[in-house]
Structure formats: structure tokens, C-alpha cells
Design a protein that fits this description.
Strand order of the largest sheet: 1-2
Shape: globular
Structural class: mainly alpha
Largest sheet: 2 strands, parallel
Radius of gyration: 16 Å
């Protein structure tokens, strides 16, 4: 399975991406250990669609390239029968051509909110902000 969210986390550890994001939003997006503070970045980008577009334009190319690398590696591995790509923004990001089949799984909003609250401490407002923001389309 290829987890695009994990690749997004990987992208935020790449020195060139870190440097770009710090140039955009300043040192305040770093934690004391120098890593990026994803909560602070989320606060910025989910409050302003233009800032979200900036983030997506910076990290999506990396995620797309890494996804393609993982798919290519799986395709030449005889032990791999199929590849599962878990990518919440697959269509919005323009990556639909990377897959042969698309499966969409939906859950009732109260269940999604409860899961996000348990996992990440998100509120209903946090979910709404993330769902209503713009996404870079290619």
C-alpha cells in the first residue's frame, strides 16, 4: 500500500521543502527541534485558501513523484499482485491517471468527526475548514 499522507509527512522533512516553507511563513513554523510544526502550518493554510494553495504547490509535486516511484517499484516486483494507493486528494490533485480503479469510502460526518477528535484532537470546525479549502488542480 502506498500512503500518500505518509509521503506528505516525508515531504515536510525534505530540506528544500522545509526551506521554501520557512521562507514563505517564517521561523515560527518550526518546532524547537527544527522540524516543521504541522499544527502551525495547518493553522495558516486552513485559514486562507491562497496559503493552502502555496503549501500544496510546494509539497504535491514531491508526493506525486514519490507515488510514481513506489508504483513503478511495485510493478516490477513479481511478488506484488496489485497496488493500493490511499490518497484523500487523489482527484483534486490531478493524480487520477495514476490508478486503474477508484474506490471511494465514505463515513457519516459524526463518525469522521469522532475519529478525528480521537486521533488528532480536531473539532467540527477544524474538519469544516479542511474540507472547504481549495486544492491545487493540475
Amino acid at each position: 500500500m502506498i500512503d500518500a499522507d505518509s509521503l506528505g509527512h516525508e515531504a515536510l522533512r525534505q530540506p528544500d521543502i522545509v526551506a521554501k516553507l520557512v521562507r514563505y511563513w517564517g521561523e515560527g513554523i518550526r518546532k524547537p527541534d527544527g522540524s516543521l510544526d504541522r499544527r502551525e502550518i495547518g493553522r495558516i493554510v486552513f485559514a486562507d485558501p491562497a496559503q493552502r494553495n502555496t503549501l500544496e504547490a510546494t509539497v504535491f509535486p514531491y508526493i506525486e513523484e514519490r507515488t510514481r516511484q513506489e508504483i513503478s517499484a511495485a510493478q516490477v516486483n513479481p511478488a506484488v499482485a496489485f497496488v493500493l494507493l490511499d490518497a484523500a486528494v487523489l482527484l483534486e490533485a490531478g493524480w487520477g491517471e495514476s490508478v486503474d480503479r477508484l474506490v471511494y469510502v465514505d463515513a457519516p460526518r459524526p463518525l469522521r468527526v469522532a475519529r478525528l477528535a480521537a486521533r488528532s484532537g480536531w473539532t467540527e470546525a477544524d474538519l469544516t475548514a479542511r474540507r472547504s479549502g481549495s486544492v491545487v488542480r493540475r
